[in-house]
Write a structure and sequence with these properties.
Ubiquitin-like (UB roll); 3 helices; five-stranded mixed sheet
């Protein structure tokens, strides 16, 4: 049986050695983090796990979904603060499916500046 290749990653500045076959999200759990927010569907649809990272020796800032991207050696990770910051509480059986309902529960949607980061992170 072949030995798993291990890589060094940095989560919020702290070094961890993890298997190279793990996604960023899985590597965070492997490192002992308990993910409560920003972990969403774990299938790449919701965009809740948007992550910003750089690879050691490179200046390019990269954006990806933590549930879909495998770790790279020398990866420096930080999570984007969860969005929206205030979790709306409602009963799905009692709300009307309309634009007004969305605005009432998530007024942040009108603060979109069209930077396209959500599309880049979740192609």
């Amino acid at each position: 049986m072949a030995e798993k290749k291990m890589v060094d990653i940095y989560i919020l500045g702290k070094k961890y050695t993890v298997p190279s076959t793990l996604t960023i999200m899985d590597s965070m759990e492997y490192a002992g983090y308990q993910l409560i927010r920003s972990c969403g569907c774990r299938s790449g649809f919701c965009g809740a796990c948007a992550t910003v990272y750089r690879v050691q020796g490179q200046s390019e800032l990269k954006v990806t979904l933590a549930c879909q991207s495998e770790v790279e050696d020398g990866m420096y990770l930080t999570q984007i603060p969860f969005f929206p910051g205030k979790k709306a509480v409602y009963d799905m059986d009692k709300v009307e499916a309309s634009a007004d309902t969305m605005v009432e529960n998530y007024p942040e949607i009108y603060k979109c500046i069209g930077c396209n980061a959500c599309t880049k992170g979740c192609s």
